[in-house]
Amino acid sequence: MSFKKIKGGVCTPKKFRAATASAGIKNPSATRLDLALLVSDIPCVGSGTFTTNQVQAAPVRLSKKHIQDGNIRAIFANSGNANACTGEVGTHDAQTSAQHVAEHLDLKADQVALCSTGVIGLPLPMERLLPPIEGMASSLKRTSGTDMAKAIMTSDTCHKEIAVSFKVGEQTVKIGACAKGAGMICPNMATMLCFITTDFNISKKLLDQAVQHAVSGSFNCITIDGDMSTNDTVLVLANGAAGNRAPSQKSKSFSLFQEALSFVMLEMAKALVRDGERVTKFVTINAIGARTAKDAQKVAEAVANSALVKASWNGEDPNWGRIIHAVGYSQAYLKENKIDILYNDLIACSNGLQAEVDMEQLRRIAAQPEFTITINLKLGSAANTVYSSDISPEYIDFNRSEYAYWKQARKDGLV
Amino acid sequence: MSFKKIKGGVCTPKKFRAATASAGIKNPSATRLDLALLVSDIPCVGSGTFTTNQVQAAPVRLSKKHIQDGNIRAIFANSGNANACTGEVGTHDAQTSAQHVAEHLDLKADQVALCSTGVIGLPLPMERLLPPIEGMASSLKRTSGTDMAKAIMTSDTCHKEIAVSFKVGEQTVKIGACAKGAGMICPNMATMLCFITTDFNISKKLLDQAVQHAVSGSFNCITIDGDMSTNDTVLVLANGAAGNRAPSQKSKSFSLFQEALSFVMLEMAKALVRDGERVTKFVTINAIGARTAKDAQKVAEAVANSALVKASWNGEDPNWGRIIHAVGYSQAYLKENKIDILYNDLIACSNGLQAEVDMEQLRRIAAQPEFTITINLKLGSAANTVYSSDISPEYIDFNRSEYAYWKQARKDGLV
């Protein structure tokens, strides 16, 4: 590892500042932070990946366009409302927000990316969302990174941020990130937002390449409940303030950046699974020995998304029978009598059969908060890893009803 | 409807008899029925459909072969143990069981179909399974249909049987069925067993055709937890005892039989969903207005299998936002701003947006034990229906651990 983890988040790289506010988006009487603004003081290049859900929130559509134009300088995010399934009103609200932010930062509207997270199908309460923006624009601080990580939380129980640094010649380069997750985490992408900043100097083209690679090995490999959100967004801003020479694709400094960026995203992705709604177990699923990469992915995802398998993790039951049955319906090419299944290093199922194993030892592994399940098809050399969690009775309880939000929206005259 | 529902089950059609026994398969000290034997007193034709899971239980592999040979006369079923993932031991145990049953019925082993349901990965306790067979063979009764429906139950809370009759000329034809379901119900097929008998006289070829058609509109349209079992089996025996002339494909009597058989299977399939593990809601999902049948199926299945949608049903929350988000990731061709979503006849989402609707009225629909959700893509005329259920905290609780079975198996010296 040629980079090191340091304390910090999105404001750790040079020339990035943030501000947050409490607008009562979901509930006018609540005082929690729910607006965040992140700005690069100097021009930068931006890159992003977005949900593959065909139902996409207005801010996703807008940010995609602005990121393509390649001229981003600021990110404005709200929690409490996803501005999804809000039609022309939602599109208009997103444009108005971007315009409003741009005016107060002396930027153009297409230099602002927008992210919203929260309930679907209700228009944004613009009369509460817009007024704080002016004050936020005038109180941007180098020290507000952690507050930003807090402002984007929805059902998260803790804020998530990280920073790393590495050397390119004499220059110190930093990468910082914050993310929010919780429910609806699934390949590909999640109900998640992740904002990443870096003072690395890099072309948009190479940044895009590095981001795609890092996302495919991190956010696209996690699952909590098999659902895919309308708002998933990863945004990366690189402002070059570190002063390094822009790398070529084959340079050592680009490899270094890729390595550090991939680490940052994977750490954030794992943090989302660990803090999934009412999650008690973090399970790494390694599908190995597959004939093709696609087969390995099918196996890992089928296991990661099976309600019965996830319930067995919640019960700390080393139930390889449920795992092999999910492998069986994954549609990967397989031979039942070759399949091995391991909990950490302990084999539970050998050639499709109960292995000679101390079940109590298996059970102790399944009782740990984190463990690894390896499924070896023994048919080839392709492999895939997915990070998953259990499903708990409390998850269902927690997600039974959002009806209170509708009642608030009715009170607000929005529906 | 040119057939009528009558009281009865698998022993209602002429010349079928059944017997049951309590062998303590899962638990030696339990006294519940767990073995069932169903026999046609005269030669018959048999047809069946089986799980598409690539990991298939030994009895599935054996029954498939015997059904293909077309000479079936008896079905022997056990609950408490699936005889899946049991390798050569399992294959041998299945063969031994069939042989044993055949001997006591004066049949050949390949005239016996086998079905097992229960825990995966443990060998059958043959020392408890075999001894009751002799007594069962000698106590077959015309009145044991209901007992058979009870003997195949696992986590079912009630037994499921049905019978219908219709006229072909002077002859009265009957169809009877029993089924067991509970968890792991998913297109295609389920952790389910369904045994159907009829005294209709029909060729194997036409019976196969009728069964395929009926299964595709019933058991392949239900889902409880998105999982697919290693043991799903539908078996149909037709012994011709009604004395009708064997129909041609285009005859009226064949249409009549098809209609009645489809009804029987659909009723059984719905009964399985209603009695799904810890289920409180039965939800019919109609995807309509799709460009292709495949698209309609993708939409209905994505909604039917979404953990978040199912949690909202449990919470009696008319949460169309979660439904449209599942529609969005279904990979069907769609336009967000055309999608309508209805709860029964009440529109909740119109053209992708919150409809003008009395939310309390929507909420009352979502509070009913059974309701219909219609998703209209308004892009074509293809449609698909899936029957689904909520997911409850109690479902997760119920499925947390099967470890006690392992302990019993260890006691039995099986693992």
SSE topology sketch:
Two copies of one chain form a homodimer.
Chain A: E1 4-6, E2 16-21, E3 35-40, E4 45-50, H1 58-69, E5 74-81, H2 87-105, E6 112-119, H3 126-129, H4 132-137, H5 145-151, E7 160-168, E8 171-180, E9 193-198, H6 204-216, E10 233-238, H7 252-274, E11 282-290, H8 293-305, H9 307-314, H10 320-328, E12 340-343, E13 346-350, E14 353-354, H11 359-366, E15 370-376, E16 382-389, H12 393-398, H13 403-411
Helix pairs in contact in A: 1-2, 6-7, 8-10
pLDDT averaged residue by residue of chain A = 91
Q: What sort of overall outline of chain A do the alpha carbons produce when their principal axes are compared?
A: globular
Structural class of chain A: alpha+beta
The total domain count of chain A is 2
- Radius of gyration of chain A over alpha carbons? 22 Å
Give the strand line-up of the largest sheet of chain A: 1-7-8-9-10-4
Overview of this protein structure:
- Two copies of one chain form a homodimer.
- With 415 residues, the first copy, chain A, is of the alpha+beta class.
- Chain A has two domains: 4-274, L-amino peptidase D-ALA esterase/amidase (4-Layer Sandwich), CATH 3.60.70; 282-391, ArgJ beta chain, C-terminal domain (Ubiquitin-like (UB roll), Roll), CATH 3.10.20.340.
- Helix content of chain A is 33%, strand content 25%.
- Chain A has 13 helices and 16 strands.
- The first copy, chain A, has helices spanning 58-69, 87-105, 126-129, 132-137, 145-151, 204-216, 252-274, 293-305, 307-314, 320-328, 359-366, 393-398, 403-411; strands spanning 4-6, 16-21, 35-40, 45-50, 74-81, 112-119, 160-168, 171-180, 193-198, 233-238, 282-290, 340-343, 346-350, 353-354, 370-376, 382-389.
- In chain A, strands 1-7-8-9-10-4 form a six-stranded mixed beta sheet, with helices on both faces. The first copy, chain A, has a six-stranded mixed beta sheet with strand order 14-13-12-15-11-16. A four-stranded mixed beta sheet of chain A has the order 2-3-5-6, sandwiched between helices.
- The longest helix of chain A is centred in the middle third of the chain and has 23 residues, at 252-274.
- Chain A is globular, with a radius of gyration of 22 Å.
- The first copy, chain A, starts with a strand and ends with a helix.
- At the A-B interface, helix 9, helix 10, strand 14, helix 12 and helix 13 of A face helix 9, helix 10, strand 14, helix 12 and helix 13 of B.
